[in-house]
Structure formats: C-alpha cells, structure tokens
Amino acid sequence: AQSVSQHNHHVILSEAASLELGCNYSYGGTVNLFWYVQYPGQHLQLLLKYFSGDPLVKGIKGFEAEFIKSKFSFNLRKPSVQWSDTAEYFCAVKTNAGKSTFGDGTTLTVKP
Amino acid sequence: DAGVIQSPRHEVTEMGQEVTLRCKPISGHDYLFWYRQTMMRGLELLIYFNNNVPIDDSGMPEDRFSAKMPNASFSTLKIQPSEPRDSAVYFCASSSFATRGVTGELFFGEGSRLTVL
Question: What is the pLDDT of residues A24-58, one digit of tens each?
Fold first, then answer.
C-alpha cells in the first residue's frame, strides 16, 4: 500500500521568506502527485499536480513542485511567501487503482 | 458546474442519535471518496466508491459507520449511534479516472461539520 510522508508538521515564516515543504511517498508503480491547500475554515483545493512530462510543475499563486523519481519526492516551493499563504498544505499520491493517499499535512503560518 | 455538494454544512446532535451526511458528486465523475478530518488524526480516508461500488472501506472506524451510493449522483454516510469522538469535519470528494489527460485530481465539497454532544 502506498504511503505519503510530510516532514514538517508546522512551519512558521516571515513574509518574503522562501518556502520548501517536503513530501516523500512510497509506491513502486506509476503515480500522479498532488499538492492541495486548505485555507482556514475552507475545504481542500488543488494547488498543483504532476501527471507526466516535465518534472517541474507550476501551480497557482506562484507555487511550484519538483518530482524527483529517484528520491520518491515531490517537494513544494515558493520563492517568496505572503501572509495570505497561511494555510495547511497536503501532499497526495494517486495510483492507477484510483485511491488517493494524503500526507498528514503541514501547517504554514506566515507572519506579516 | 456546481461542484461537489454536501449537506448539512453543520450538524449538532446528541450522543446516541443517528447522523446522515449527504453528498452529490460532480456529474460525470466515477469516483467518490469520504474523508474525515480532525485535529488529532488529520485527514483520514473512510471509504471510496468507483461506479457506485464500494472499493475500499478499510478506513471506516467501526460498524457504527456505513456508506451507500445508490446511484451516480448521490451518496450517504451514516453514523448510528453517534458518539462524541465522531465529532469532525466530514469531506466528500469526487474525481474521474486519469484518462485523456485528465489527471484524476480530487474535487472536495465544503464539508459537513459534525458535533456530537
């Protein structure tokens, strides 16, 4: 069974700082990879996704993620965070079986 | 498209009562998922359906929980009897399988916040 590990449970940054959230997964087959964001009091929304092709994917609001197959990683990055990026971020892996497995989430707090 | 629709948005009930949560997936999606989110346990997959058939219900906590999908446009999650530890936000999500460039991302509903007193 696949699993997803997010290394940081809570990250606190000041505005304009750079962000990198780690995500590793365990699954030997073909995967689709996702980052979802959950703003306070809201439901999860898709931030970006990797399906195939260029391993560097760009999402909304200046976020990007790089798929490194050899490391089973899909880390999320943003060069300069804003206060409005305060949210919980979830990495997810979807296999051909259709099931999506989520990491435990990382809470990002951006101080103004 | 209206997105995934869940009801009720909020429910407060007393221990021992039956709770029924409802979900209408996005039209054309053939996968439906029920998740539970709490501070302690994060986001947990309870059960998911493919073409109205339950595929994996290993995340359902116990026999008090049951889920049905009688047709492609409706699913229910029932808790009977409810207990305080069931208090959580329950999310329904739908997706289509990854074909023809569709990547199978999940579309979440707004969630049903359940409080069991």
Answer: 999 877 888 999 999 998 989 999 999 888 999 99
pLDDT digits (tens, 9 = 90+) for A61-101: 999 999 999 999 999 999 999 999 999 999 999 876 677 88
Could you tell me the pLDDT band of residue B102, with boundaries at 50, 70 and 90? low
- Rounded alpha-carbon distances, angstroms, from residue A8 to A25, A47, A89, A103: 14, 18, 10, 11
Distance, C-alpha B5 to centroid of its chain: 11
The answer to whether A51 contacts B101, with C-beta atoms less than 8 Å apart, is yes
> Interface of chain A against chain B, CB under 8 Å?
32, 34, 36, 42-46, 49, 51, 90, 92, 94, 96-102, 104-105
Question: Are B109 and A43 a contacting pair at CB < 8 A?
Answer: yes
Pairing of strands B10-13, B112-116: parallel
Shortest CA distance from B51: residue in chain A: A98
